[in-house]
Amino acid sequence: MSELYLVTDTDMGCRAGHTVPYIVEEACRAGVRWVQLREKTASTRAFVELAGELKRITQMYGARLIINDRVDVALAVDADGVHVGQDDMPHHLVRKLIGLDKILGLSVNNLTELQEAKGADIDYLGVAAIFPTATKQDTSSLLGLEGLREICRQTRLPTFAIGGINAGNIRDVMRAGATGAAVVSAICGHPSPYEAARELSLLMSE
Ligand code: TZP
Ligand code: MG
């Protein structure tokens, strides 16, 4: 199964002339099996409607739908899981709310956060940020390939690297030991999300 992980961005999709459901369907058609709905400015109503639409699409392709931050939205549409960052609801409380059957992802930005996550009931780690990115403003320090390698060495959890990953560096990310790679702009900002996802999938499995 492809471990290419798409994180959505409505504004970026708009600039490329595409809606999020279109991007997600094209990416799923190209083999993406992890989709995270990440909405920072949408109203709750718009968020939950979009989540419902993505649930239908991802289900059709056998892909997992993960909701960023919003446990309530994830539960409302029966998504496959929730992804939280360090400033969001603590992961043990998220687990309490979503139960044991759903997937829980946690972002870690450095080795200290990795240590704090040891023994936690989480299913995968988002490892950020690897390379410079214009997509997220508050990426404090960059891990680079060395930092990613060290984090992957120190955990048994699946690791999805994120931040500045594109067709030019995705092979290096996989060689550093990541289970998979998560991207926003490389798919959402591409004129053809299908072609972009296909190329990334092929490169990462080389
Ligand atoms: N978390 C850490 S970096 C990032 C997120 C959501 C943005 C990654 O975006 P891109 O466009 O793939 O660099
Ligand atoms: Mg968050």
UniProtKB/TrEMBL annotation:
<feature type="binding site">
    <location>
        <position position="164"/>
    </location>
    <ligand>
        <name>2-[(2R,5Z)-2-carboxy-4-methylthiazol-5(2H)-ylidene]ethyl phosphate</name>
    </ligand>
</feature>
<keyword id="KW-0479">Metal-binding</keyword>
<dbReference type="GO" id="GO:0005737">
    <property type="term" value="C:cytoplasm"/>
</dbReference>
<dbReference type="GO" id="GO:0000287">
    <property type="term" value="F:magnesium ion binding"/>
</dbReference>
<keyword id="KW-0784">Thiamine biosynthesis</keyword>
<comment type="pathway">
    <text>Cofactor biosynthesis; thiamine diphosphate biosynthesis; thiamine phosphate from 4-amino-2-methyl-5-diphosphomethylpyrimidine and 4-methyl-5-(2-phosphoethyl)-thiazole: step 1/1.</text>
</comment>
<feature type="binding site">
    <location>
        <position position="69"/>
    </location>
    <ligand>
        <name>Mg(2+)</name>
    </ligand>
</feature>
<dbReference type="GO" id="GO:0009229">
    <property type="term" value="P:thiamine diphosphate biosynthetic process"/>
</dbReference>
<feature type="binding site">
    <location>
        <position position="68"/>
    </location>
    <ligand>
        <name>4-amino-2-methyl-5-(diphosphooxymethyl)pyrimidine</name>
    </ligand>
</feature>
<dbReference type="InterPro" id="IPR036206">
    <property type="entry name" value="ThiamineP_synth_sf"/>
</dbReference>
<feature type="binding site">
    <location>
        <begin position="184"/>
        <end position="185"/>
    </location>
    <ligand>
        <name>2-[(2R,5Z)-2-carboxy-4-methylthiazol-5(2H)-ylidene]ethyl phosphate</name>
    </ligand>
</feature>
<feature type="domain" description="Thiamine phosphate synthase/TenI">
    <location>
        <begin position="4"/>
        <end position="187"/>
    </location>
</feature>
<feature type="binding site">
    <location>
        <begin position="133"/>
        <end position="135"/>
    </location>
    <ligand>
        <name>2-[(2R,5Z)-2-carboxy-4-methylthiazol-5(2H)-ylidene]ethyl phosphate</name>
    </ligand>
</feature>
<dbReference type="GO" id="GO:0009228">
    <property type="term" value="P:thiamine biosynthetic process"/>
</dbReference>
<dbReference type="GO" id="GO:0004789">
    <property type="term" value="F:thiamine-phosphate diphosphorylase activity"/>
</dbReference>
<feature type="binding site">
    <location>
        <position position="107"/>
    </location>
    <ligand>
        <name>4-amino-2-methyl-5-(diphosphooxymethyl)pyrimidine</name>
    </ligand>
</feature>
<dbReference type="InterPro" id="IPR034291">
    <property type="entry name" value="TMP_synthase"/>
</dbReference>
<keyword id="KW-0460">Magnesium</keyword>
<dbReference type="InterPro" id="IPR022998">
    <property type="entry name" value="ThiamineP_synth_TenI"/>
</dbReference>
<dbReference type="InterPro" id="IPR013785">
    <property type="entry name" value="Aldolase_TIM"/>
</dbReference>
<dbReference type="Pfam" id="PF02581">
    <property type="entry name" value="TMP-TENI"/>
</dbReference>
<keyword id="KW-0808">Transferase</keyword>
<feature type="binding site">
    <location>
        <begin position="36"/>
        <end position="40"/>
    </location>
    <ligand>
        <name>4-amino-2-methyl-5-(diphosphooxymethyl)pyrimidine</name>
    </ligand>
</feature>
<comment type="similarity">
    <text>Belongs to the thiamine-phosphate synthase family.</text>
</comment>
<feature type="binding site">
    <location>
        <position position="88"/>
    </location>
    <ligand>
        <name>Mg(2+)</name>
    </ligand>
</feature>
<protein>
    <recommendedName>
        <fullName>Thiamine-phosphate synthase</fullName>
        <ecNumber>2.5.1.3</ecNumber>
    </recommendedName>
</protein>
<comment type="function">
    <text>Condenses 4-methyl-5-(beta-hydroxyethyl)thiazole monophosphate (THZ-P) and 2-methyl-4-amino-5-hydroxymethyl pyrimidine pyrophosphate (HMP-PP) to form thiamine monophosphate (TMP).</text>
</comment>
<feature type="binding site">
    <location>
        <position position="136"/>
    </location>
    <ligand>
        <name>4-amino-2-methyl-5-(diphosphooxymethyl)pyrimidine</name>
    </ligand>
</feature>
